[in-house]
Amino acid sequence: MDFNGSHPVASAAARLCRSLHDHSPSWEDVACPECWDAALLADKEAATEAGLDLECPADTALVDEVAVSRAVAGEAIELTVAEWHAARSALMKRRGVCVRHAKFLLARNVTVVDALGNPLTPPVLGVAARGVASTARIVNLASQARTRRKTARRASFMSTAAELAA
């Protein structure tokens, strides 16, 4: 199995590497080798302890109904794109609101993340919501957006530092 975003443990490895090394994961460059090893070991230990198979396919369309219910109830929570779709539909059905109002209500308390746990910006979420892009494309779009923001902040800092030095 490839060590990219399609690996079942990729999300855990990406989150670990982001928290420990401030790494911005992409589909091809998910995490450093140390974080991959730690995530794989933790997954193997959890599977062994629970008596589960050591190999299982990743499922990006999996919906955590508890997370969806919490989001609909107004709790601050992270949702995957599939869960966000389910929460939007649930809001529309339960409250009888339109799509735009449901999106507005969710935007107040929900952070939508891609398959690797990267927060999605509104433009990238728009691409994901239309369902025209693959999971890998959404992860790479989110990574590119983060890189652009980081570069812009760095350039702004450097220009301010140069003005102060002058």
The assigned structural class equals mainly alpha
Rough outline: flat
Beta strand count:
2
Overall tally of structural domains: 2
What are the segments in which pLDDT stays under 50 over at least 5 consecutive residues?
none
The quaternary state of the protein chains shown equals single chain
Rounded Rg: 18 Å
Q: Taking strands numbered 1, 2, ... along the chain, how are they ordered across the largest sheet? A: 1-2
Q: Kindly, what is the distance between the CA atoms of the first and last residues, rounded to a whole number of angstroms?
A: 54 Å
Secondary structure tally, helices: 7
Helical percentage:
55-70%
Strand content: under 5%
Q: Could you describe the largest sheet, including whether it forms a barrel?
A: 2 strands, parallel
Order of helices and strands: HHHEHHEHH
Q: What number is the mean pLDDT?
A: 84
